[in-house]
Amino acid sequence: QEQLVESGGGLVQAGGSLRLSCAVSTLIVNIYTMGWYRQAPGKPRELVAIIPTRGGSTNYADSVKGRFTISRNNAGTTVYLQMNSLKPEDTAVYYCNVRGRNGDYWGQGTQVTVSS
Question: How do beta strands 92-100 and 103-106 pair?
């Protein structure tokens, strides 16, 4: 049973928008942070955005500040990534991550491709 299920990826032109969603299994409890990472071909996985579940502020990679917004529902069962003003360099596989007392959980990844 998959515990993190992502959706919302796809192909978009530069300047466009996409919204990623990640549904988190209710079997995962005691969550500290929810976040999004991405990995482009030939590059290491990098943090895009992270949001705490128990207070604190969101954090973004410098490359996406002002363009991407991370949010979550109050129940902590879904995390979103709104991506605006997309650029070709945003092309990557995007992974949902949940970090809790029992460790890290990862989604299967969703492809985002931005054409120029």
Answer: antiparallel
CA 27 to chain centre: 20
Query: End-to-end distance of the chain based on CA atoms, in angstroms?
Result: 37
Q: How many C-beta neighbours within 10 Å does residue 85 have?
A: 13
Convert the pLDDT of each residue in 54-69 to its tens digit: 888 999 999 999 999 9
Return the number of other C-beta atoms located less than 10 Å from residue 39's C-beta.
Answer: 14
Residue 49's pLDDT band, with cuts at 50, 70 and 90, is: very high
Q: Beta-carbon neighbour count of residue 108 at 10 Å? A: 11
CA-nearest of 37, 22, 51 to 59 is: 51
